[in-house]
Amino acid sequence: MRVLIAAVGSRGDVAPCVGIGERLRGAGHTVTIAAHPSYAAMVRAAGLECHPLPGDLGVLLDLPERSTPAYQAGRVPRLTTLLREAARATYDAAAHADLLLTNGSAPFGYDVAEARGIPGAGVYCQPMTPTGDFPPIVLHSARSWGRPGNRLLGSLGVRSMIPFHRATAELRRDLGLPRRSVRRTQARQAAERWPILHGYSPAVLPRPADWRPGLDVVGYWWPPATTWEPPAELTSFLAGGPPPVFVGFGSMAGGHGARLAPLVVAALRRAGMRGVLQAGRAGLGVNTPDGFGPDVLAVDDVPHEWLFPQVAAVVHHAGAGTTGATLRAGVPSVPAPVFADQPLWSRRLVELGCAPEVIPFRRLDAGRLAEAVRAAVREPRHRAAAQVLQRVVTADDGAGAVVELVERLAARS
């Protein structure tokens, strides 16, 4: 079967889809990933085809120091354009597909599958459906409003995703499909029991009992194994002292590197820890050609599955994929969430005992970060809790659940 996976978003959105694609390819399917061209090498390294999605990801990922109403209002049309172009490119790629899988940043995938007359399903790394169990991720906050409040805000939050809904409505208009409201689409999906698999462990965030049938939590989708070889400088640094603390914000914090790098280095030194800083989109360390000294090393892209088992703790933005990678490695965290689902995963890390506290990204300062790093490393309970979760999340077979779903849908079509 020819499977298309619409993977809109950052590396953290694309890498799990590549892991799914690799398993599907191993099961005999032909897989294409629709993703931003900057991830084409990762896709093709797994033996998969890549269909490019146009647009500037900075519209989605780069946020100012302080988000004003004027900034958010100006962002809506730019984000709508990005998503509309991605939707059209996904529709074009689906001309050669027998089945479409779509991630949480590409809700228009449901409409593309309808237009192409092929089966589809969701493969989400975040819980998008309203529930009373926790607050909606669109609030960018982990504060609970009680079960009725969480569910009400979740429903309102889904409807407030204006760029996504505009892009979908414009796609339907361009394809000659009848207009359909968000509420009617949700009702149709519920009636069909349209499947959405969630790629995180139920031990980390259990499936809400108030979700409709067809929504399942199946376990993490790990990026494919690589033949990556570490640079000599990194292996020498790791061998030259006690395990360091890893610090990285992934695809978040674009343009914040000049502020973050000295803050992070000062915090590590106050905590008495060595550190590995990953540049990421923030550019940590890129403007310090002479380095930070013998106790801190700046690196480019390093596979988390290779590095994390060798560190004392991980300071990170708490994206779904990075959170899973820390648990897979059995190491404690210091989460510094930026937006979206990150506050939710941060809160769960603390509740599960794997992190001492949550430090919101915009409240990072050297003193508070130093105290959190010191607690994560020196209080054994955090590593012990992470190691308990390590055994659970590595026993899950999330990608296998996707293969089973694809073959079930294929048998029906």
Automatic annotation (TrEMBL):
Ordered alphabetically, the record's keywords are: Antibiotic biosynthesis, Transferase
Q: Where is the Erythromycin biosynthesis protein CIII-like C-terminal domain?
A: 294-403
Record bears the keyword Transferase: yes
Q: Which Gene Ontology BP annotations are present? A: carbohydrate metabolic process; vancomycin biosynthetic process
Query: Taking every annotated instance into account, which residue ranges of this chain make up the domain Glycosyltransferase family 28 N-terminal?
Result: 3-120
Keyword Transferase recorded: yes
- Lineage top rank: taxon: Bacteria
Cite a single GO MF annotation: UDP-glycosyltransferase activity
Cite a single Pfam family from the UniProt record.
Answer: Glyco_transf_28
Q: In which pathway does it act?
A: Antibiotic biosynthesis; vancomycin biosynthesis
Q: In its UniProt entry, what is this protein called?
A: UDP:flavonoid glycosyltransferase YjiC, YdhE family
Organism lineage reads as:
Bacteria, Bacillati, Actinomycetota, Actinomycetes, Pseudonocardiales
